[in-house]
Design a protein that fits this description.
The protein is an alpha/beta fold. The chain contains 14 helices and 19 strands. A hairpin with a 2-residue loop joins strand 16 and strand 17 (391-398). Helix 3 packs across helix 4, helix 10 (212-224) crosses helix 11 (246-256) and helix 10 packs antiparallel against helix 14 (451-457).
Length: 460
């Protein structure tokens, strides 16, 4: 308990102050604003929208031209519905006009980042300190719904775009100082998963956080081993990054002995919604405006399926205004039974991902391959297909920055992760067709996992 208090009350706030992120101040605001009425929450959204539009007009020439053409005056905006005067923007717009959108002089600095490419189209974008603070504060507020305080021990089953044989010791030290243990979701061999379970028991987390499919895989492994991890202080397991299927939720909850909470978000827009103990997925309404639109760009009725189009109210470094996410969602007209005024999402239909399997049988999250592709210059779109343990095909739509050296970088990166004897074939194509369902799968593996592991990672 003392370590948790030091981490949450001293070290974590000190870190945020050093990096000039107003995380804890925003957390205090969110703790109050969540209890506003829905109309008061929407009035707060409108106030923040005006501020964002003024930032965009002053510092983003591309947005300024669009607002002028649409006749949208920030200070004369009287309703969130006024946003509909603006055309929607998409990932291509954000990439093609990035230099005309990014506010390089944003207080605290603009930091380059990139998406995981869930549609097969990676996006390089910039975020600022305010976006970082919004993400962290929103997550901490949601953790508190489950009784997990900032600084309480947390385990992250996660991956990172670093070479798997290297250790970022600075980040490791930082994680431990703020009471976090990070386990690599890109290297989930049976031996590693046994060690992960041991490490989790020794660490005693209040929260376990990770990719939905990776959590299900670890839970399936534990059950196959006849293990039920002893984590008496565990209060919640938070799943993110991809759809959480009912059978995965049941498996994770059974094995880890704690409720499972879903999370919805993306790298470009940020953490969008978190599941509350009452079972509803609550939008971080103070940070995001969510429109649910039909194919013609018109709002659908609550309960109807539509595309999630978002405006990031904290995206001042690179404003995302009416941004088409490509995700399909349904809203719920029923308010939060706990009394919060936040908007409620009934369902998120994301995009399916697969695991990759190394030549030695090591199972890793799809992002282990995605990081290789998105780190390669000149990749506009991609699809990675694992035909068998030693046969990888990459379909790639090049852009103007592509060079033949990119194929060598992809080959080397994938073989480093999957095994040096893996054959990697890079094929340049004009376009990549979606699946029969209409969805885009950026990683497809035909390597069977078998048994309980196959069920844990299936989509039905």
């Amino acid at each position: 308990m003392l370590r948790s208090r030091i981490a949450g009350g001293l070290i974590y706030p000190l870190q945020e102050r050093v990096f000039r992120r107003p995380t804890f101040a925003y957390l205090a605001e969110l703790e109050k604003s969540q209890w506003l009425t829905r109309s008061a929450v929407e009035a707060l959204q409108l106030e923040k929208l005006r501020a964002l539009l003024n930032v965009a007009r002053a510092h983003s020439p591309w947005h300024r031209a669009r607002m002028q053409e649409a006749g949208l005056e920030p200070d004369a905006t009287t309703s969130v519905a006024d946003l509909r005067k603006l055309p929607r923007m998409n990932k291509h717009d954000a990439a093609a006009h990035r230099d005309e959108i990014v506010w390089q002089g944003v207080p605290g600095g603009a930091f380059k980042y990139n998406t995981g490419g869930s549609s097969g189209q990676p996006l390089v974008f910039h975020f600022g300190r305010w976006r970082q603070a919004s993400d962290a504060a929103g997550r901490m507020r949601a953790r508190r719904w489950w009784g997990v305080e900032p600084g309480a021990p947390e385990v992250y089953l996660w991956g990172a775009p670093v070479e798997l044989n290297k250790t970022d010791w600075v980040k490791t030290v930082r994680d431990r100082l703020i009471n976090q243990l990070v386990l690599n979701a890109f290297a989930m061999s049976p031996v590693h998963m046994d060690r992960y379970l041991d490490a989790m028991e020794a660490f005693g987390p209040h929260c376990v956080y990770g990719y939905a499919s990776s959590l299900a895989l670890l839970a399936a492994h534990a059950r196959a081993r006849g293990r039920k991890p002893r984590m008496a202080r565990l209060k919640v397991v938070c799943a993110t990054g991809e759809p959480l299927y009912d059978h995965q939720r049941a498996l994770i909850g059974e094995v880890f002995g704690a409720p499972v909470a879903n999370e919805y978000g993306s790298r470009d827009i940020g953490f969008t919604a978190h599941e509350a103990p009452q079972g509803q997925l609550l939008l971080t309404s103070e940070s995001i405006i969510l429109e649910v639109l039909d194919e013609a760009g018109q709002p659908v009725a609550p309960g109807e399926l539509g595309e999630a189009v978002m405006t990031g109210l904290c995206s001042d470094a690179q404003p995302f205004i009416r941004y088409r996410t490509g995700d399909m969602v349904r809203m719920n007209a029923t308010p939060d039974p706990a009394g919060r005024g936040l908007h409620v999402i009934a369902e998120v239909i994301g995009r399916q991902t697969d695991f990759l399997v190394g030549a030695d049988g090591t199972i890793m999250h799809a992002l282990a391959g995605i990081y290789v592709l998105r780190a390669t210059e000149g990749v506009a779109e991609f699809k990675l297909i694992q035909h068998d343990l030693r046969d990888i095909e990459v379909l790639l739509v090049p852009d103007a920055g592509w060079s033949p050296a990119g194929a060598g970088a992809i080959d080397a990166g994938l073989r480093q992760r999957l095994g040096q004897d893996v054959r990697v074939t890079v094929r340049l194509v004009d376009q990549i067709a979606p699946e029969a369902s209409g969805k885009h799968r950026y990683v497809v593996s035909h390597v069977p996992l078998g048994g309980e592991l196959a069920r844990a990672t299936s989509t039905h």
